[in-house]
Each structure stands twice: as structure tokens, then as C-alpha cells.
Amino acid sequence: MLKRIPLPSQFDRIIIGGGITVGAIGVPLGIVLVTLVAFGVISAPEMVFFVAAIIVILGALGCVLLPNIVHAALSLTATLIGVAALYLLLMSEFLALVQVLVYGGGVVLLLLFGLMMTNAQDDPVVTDGSQKPFAFLLVSLLIGTFITLLLSGDWGNPTAHVVPFELFGERLFREFALPIIIVAVLLDVAITGALVNVHSTGSDLPEESE
Amino acid sequence: MIPIEYFLTLGAILFGLGLFGVLSRRSAILILMAVELMLAGVSINFIAFASYLDTDAFTGLIFALFVITVAAAEVGLALGIVLRLFRERRTSNVDEASDMRW
């Protein structure tokens, strides 16, 4: 059936395939979660948490496993937006806004431009290193240790509280004034360093990084 | 209410996946993206502790803000280095840039 629809490019096939995959995973999962909420097994905020966590983990898996680097960068975007949703669930709206602005907007755009100027222009498919099985073993051990340790701890039963904007800004600019200035100097040095580093010395085409 | 263990588990998993990416990838920009994943996992832990257990001082929120700022600076600087490397060597594979390795 797909053959008979006139598809101008491979891009359309990727979009259709990705949409079918996401729907095939997402719709049953959504039905299961809504059923669990309806029967009172989990609460509504927990359902939102599970949806965000699934987006975050699938996006992170895509980011570290996909062979095409542009696809990996796009699934990193999904992860970072999901992390912003988690910040909202943790009652810190300011950091969620900053996350969407800085990561979803700035960092991902910068990474995509970097990919455009390096690998992606001729060959976007990369091969991974030979230490992948070793890395998998090490990371499984690490995650297992972390989760065993933190689940054996006694956290009590705390609840999340909202931090008002006014208190946050007051504390940030009074008690943390010196770190703020240091971070400002760091940003200045980093941007200047990037410009100086990228500025071409031999070739005739000057390029800019940011 | 959501238990705090959920957020801590998710942060640990995200950190582990990022570490896996750093260890297994060979393209410099993909290593940078995996480092971003690790930083996101750490930020989730910071904010979870700040808004669940440290509601008076909320130092974790401020640290998460600093993490985001430093990560942005790091990405800008590191991409400059990768672009320079690509222009000089026509590669962004970290295995091929081993001149300064002992």
C-alpha cells in the first residue's frame, strides 16, 4: 500500500515509519496506564511521571544506540524535553523553563550545526568502538549498584514543595553572588576561547562557532 | 504524591546510559551528547533532593542552574575544538586524534 502513495523522498518514509512505531508502542502503553489510573493502582501524577520517564529512557537509548548521528541528536531532544517535564513534576517551574530554553533551543541547535559542519555532510552513519560489550557490562554493574543502594535506603515519606520565584532569586543573588560572577567570567572565557579556536588561520574562509 | 525513589532511579539510569554512550561512541559530538545525558541525570538527582528533602535552603536547585550554565559553555567550547579538529584532519573520530596520547 505504501508503494502506491507517491512519496517524494526518503524523509517521508522515515516519518511514516517512525509514526507507526511510536503509535504501536505508545497506544497500548497509554491504555495500560489509563486503566491503572482508573482502577486506582497509581495516581495521576504518577501516570504523568511514567509517561515522561518512558520518553526520557527511550530517547536516551536512541541517543546512545542509533547509528545515524542526526537521529541520535533528535532523540536527545526528546530526552531533554522529557527531563523538563520531570522538573515540572518536581515543582521547579523555573528550571523547567531554563531547561527548555537552553537545552531544547540552544544546545541541540548548536550540536546539530556542529554535526552539519562535520560528519553529517558526507556520511551521517558512524560505527561504535570495540569496547561496547565492556561498556555495557560496566554500566549494568553501575546502574545495578546505584538502584540497589538507593532502594535499600530509608527515605521516609517526604513530599515535594514549591520554591517561590522571589525566594529563589533572593537566595541566588545574595548568598551565591560570587559563584554567579565566576560563572559569568567562565562563560566569557569559554565563548572567547571558542571563537579564537575556530577562527581560521590558514584558510581564506573565516568561520564562526556561535 | 510521587515517591522520591522514582526520581532517583531515573537519574541513575540516565547517568548510566550517558556513561555507556561516552564509553562506546567514537564520534566526538556523540560523546558530547552522552555527556549531556549524564549531566541531565545528575540534575534530576539535585532537584529531587532539593524539592523533597531540603525545602528551606534548596541549594540543589541553584546547583542545577549552575550545571546547566556550565554545560552550555562546555558545549560551545568543545564544538569549537571539534570543528578545528575536523578542519585540520577531516575527521571527528576521537581514535584518530591520538597525537598527544602517551
Please summarize what this structure is.
Chain A has helices at 10-38, 44-65, 69-89, 93-117, 132-152, 165-174, 177-198. Chain A is mainly alpha-helical and 210 residues long.
Lay out the secondary structure:
The complex is a heterodimer of chains A (210) and B (102).
Chain A: H1 10-38, H2 44-65, H3 69-89, H4 93-117, H5 132-152, H6 165-174, H7 177-198
Helix pairs in contact in A: 1-2, 2-3, 3-4
Chain B: H1 4-24, H2 28-53, H3 59-89
Strand content of chain A: under 5%
Largest sheet descriptor of chain A: none
Estimate the strand proportion of chain B: under 5%
N-to-C span of chain B: 53 Å
**Biggest β-sheet of chain B: count, sense, barrel?**
none
Number of helices of chain A: 7
Query: From N to C, what is the helix and strand string of chain B?
Result: HHH
Low-confidence stretches of chain A: none
Q: Structural class, from helix and strand content of chain A?
A: mainly alpha
Overall pLDDT score of chain B = 88
